[in-house]
Amino acid sequence: MIYEGKAITVKEIEGGFAQLDFDLTGESVNKFNQLTIGELGEAAEALEKQKKLKGLVVTSSKDTFIVGADITEFTELFAGPEEDLVNNSLKANRIFNSIEDLPFPTVTAINGQALGGGFEMCLSTDFRVMDEKAKVGLPEVKLGIFPGFGGTVRLSRLIGADNAIEWICMGGEQKADKALKAHAVDAVVKSDQLVDAAVDILKEANSGKLDYQARREEKTGKLKLNSMESMMVFETSKGYVAGQSGPNYPSPVEAVKVMQKHAGMTRDKAVEVEAKGFAKMAKTGTAASLVQIFLNDQDLKKKAKDYEKQANQVKMAAVLGAGIMGGGIAYQSALKGTSIMMKDINRDGIKLGLDEAKKQLSKRVEKGKMSADQMGDVLNNIHPTLNYGDFGDVDLVVEAVVENPKVKDSVLRETEDVIGEDKILTSNTSTISIDRLAKNLKRPENFCGMHFFNPVHMMPLVEVIRGEKTSDKAVATTVAYARAMGKSPIVVNDCPGFLVNRILFPYFGGFARLVRDGADFQKVDKVMEKFGWPMGPAYLLDVVGMDTAKHANEVMAEGFPDRMKDEHKSAIDVMFEKDRLGQKSDVGFYQYKLDKKGKQQKVVDESTYDLLKPVVHNSQEFTDDEIIERMMIPLCIETVRCLEDNIVGTAAEADMGLVYGIGFPPFRGGALRYIDDIGLDAFCQMADKYKDLGPLYHPTDGMREMAKAGKKFHG
């Protein structure tokens, strides 16, 4: 044994070669934590001392090569001085350089995934062989940073600046065929041939058929572009990348600037430029928020896995109410492999549901994500029916009929009578109390909420709502089914609106008050979109539908009359009364017209201003900051109330519910992270400026106590 550690071993193998194997003790995957990086440095030193070695194969004993850096270490690391971040990056780079500079040829055998630092490790060897099912990539921009272990340097020289810019700035995972075509890897083979193929490359390098020194010179030298070519590639890319990423995500553009800056440098100087750029991005609020979101997501996955241990398996599901929502649920279930009954009371409903599923599947076929045969297989997993005849085999039912308590009550009681006594019944209600819906059920312990967000195929969140009598088994089975559908479930306790809608409607309340006080709804939309929301509140109301919004608003007002009941007629009321329901009626705050591709496009409708005049009581001008404050304060305070009322268990779950459920700007990390960034004391002072607007703007006593104690919601 040449070297033995807790993450890395190095041993001599047949042919005079060595094998460096990653196998991090106690972990299901390999990752570059401080331990692994340190051991890689020690392993490199041990290899340098070997006088008779002819080459090195780098492998992984786990199902995946290396998933990247240990992101759990980022929070503390990024909180430190920028200089320390630079030095930390340069220290790691010296270790990677020592692998690259070994006095014999090197090759990496890539299995599973090699992402981030894992792929940068691959790039430090002379050659790369890839399993045909493996993927490689540099996804760091998704965390608000970019590669910091030499990735911008080596990849740009290996596959060309234009390809490297695409790979790094888009942050995608690349399949084996694309990696081979781009010359990021040298061979693609079946998994059982991976190590043998790597050894064959070493043999060819030793015989002189492959010039490994030339490979090194290519990766460690200057980028082969003249000044004109360099300017054209990088200047053009900066504009395009900025347009794709937007102003709130600076790391992709910064990555292009860094590659441009070090293009004329050799490796050792180039990695210094990269390290400084990496540290600069790591100190941004965007990176801090996106790292927090990643950690929150890991927390959600861990909780879901804990629930799954108690779950019954869902082999056959059912959805009641075919429609757009029911069709979306059926599509998602069937796509992910769980057969599903789709019941409606008439054939028109069934057709609507099947058409929705076919539409989504056809899009996948058009994009090359599945074949026509695979589309047929998915459709065969959806079983339309007009009766309950086959419901005896169903393990879990999702009720998705009209949002009316009496209708839901009738359907739920009817369904409970035809399914097995140990089977799970759920409701896709968006606002109605689960306890209220459970009141007339015989087995309320088997009933809970399963709230999907529209459109089902795009929105990752599912709220699993626990009623007073809901059993752990019902919750666990529903969570497991949501996970099987590819969704991120969050378990919440029952209340009107649950978590997301309870928080969303104070945000709409802030919008209604702004319009009442004279704000231009289009300006409010533009300001909030610039703040980072995918759409402003007026546009969002048009998408939600004014009838849906009015109904939900009434439920919220009944549940929380102290702060959500408004005696004044609002802009939402006006739109509803005028039958301007939004996109579903082609007109709401805006008009909606079909473009050449048949997609609805938002068009300004000046008549909206005349319709709103009766509910506009002032003619006040608002700054952008005032609009943001008046919109965000009610949303943030209601999020805190949900945490304090134990509707949601943790700050991480609350923030992820907003990011996944209503598109809260990810680079801001969620409502509670947003408060933390402002500071609780400063937030309370900001809210106090608007106390005359009513209880929606009044911080809780708990918030003021936390402010005095200097506490945060995260960390």
Automatic annotation (TrEMBL):
The protein's Enzyme Commission number: 4.2.1.17
Annotated family: In the central section; belongs to the 3-hydroxyacyl-CoA dehydrogenase family.
Pathway(s) this gene product operates in, as recorded in its UniProt entry: Lipid metabolism; fatty acid beta-oxidation
Protein's gene: fadB
Gene3D superfamilies: 1.10.1040.50, 2-enoyl-CoA Hydratase, Chain A, domain 1, NAD(P)-binding Rossmann-like Domain
BP GO terms, sorted: fatty acid beta-oxidation
One GO term describing the cellular component: fatty acid beta-oxidation multienzyme complex
Residues annotated as domain 3-hydroxyacyl-CoA dehydrogenase C-terminal: 497-592
Reactions it catalyzes: a (3S)-3-hydroxyacyl-CoA + NAD(+) = a 3-oxoacyl-CoA + NADH + H(+)
Keywords recorded for this protein, A-Z: Fatty acid metabolism, Isomerase, Lipid degradation, Lipid metabolism, Lyase, Multifunctional enzyme, NAD, Oxidoreductase
Domain of life: Bacteria
Classification via SUPFAM superfamilies: 6-phosphogluconate dehydrogenase C-terminal domain-like (SSF48179), ClpP/crotonase (SSF52096), NAD(P)-binding Rossmann-fold domains (SSF51735)
Record-given protein name: enoyl-CoA hydratase
One GO MF term attached to the UniProt entry: long-chain (3S)-3-hydroxyacyl-CoA dehydrogenase (NAD+) activity
The 3-hydroxyacyl-CoA dehydrogenase NAD binding domain, residue ranges: 317-495
NCBIfam families: FadB, PRK11730.1
Signal peptide: none
